[in-house]
Amino acid sequence: MKRNKMASHIRKAAVQGSFYPKECAEVKALIEKFKQELETIPVSPEIQNIIPKAVIVPHAGYIYSGFTANCAYQFLKRSKAKRIIVIGPSHHYYFKGISGSYYEAYETPCGEIPIDSPYLFALAKQFNIGFEPQAHAKEHSTEVQMPFIKYYFPHTKVIELIYGDMAVKELANLILALLHNKENAVIISSDLSHFHTLEEAKAHDFSCLRAVDTIDAKILKQGCEACGITGLHAMLLAAKELKLSSKLLDYRTSADATGETKSVVGYMSAMFY
Asked: Rounded distance, CA 63 to CA 83, Å?
């Protein structure tokens, strides 16, 4: 992997206008709509005051998975994290290992988010985090989280980590180190199964949901087809090691938005605390 070199520019928003709106006012309006929808659903008293250390969120267009993602951000917003580390799979570029966002800031429709470069440099030395610019250029799994972060954490720094072909245990060790630091909150980005019928998708996705609900990574092998399965698996190993609890927050498919049941994508949000 390429050696760490600081990019002297901003990571431009590549999927604004497609995955989420280009205009700040429209992004805010959408997130506020998700919040209002969530307020109509009763929250069980035992989870009302939970402050998560990590969340799992989906990464499709906001019209499909924005509500599901927002469920996690509604809890994560209670965190007093100094920095948020967003970890997602590479969709467009094959590489081995993990790549960090060696930029100065991350562009969103509502303004830039500063990147915590000193922390990233320190992390990189310990975990061999390189820099693959092509992996970051148009990666939506991490980018779609940034407008949510800007909205809920206007003064918090971020780090974007995109993984390619890498060992689960390696990523789990990195997540463990991140979670040992109380100044961090971790976001794991993953959609679930893709392009099955609604009935088949639910069967596959149930394995992912059960694995997260019970913090048992072995259950992932029973049919889970999450596109970010390496991240899910690594998060479960880290959560088990740290004796964290988990709570599923929302599950739905693209059929909820489109009505199309012949070929759907699954979405989940969850938190670890």
From this structure: 27
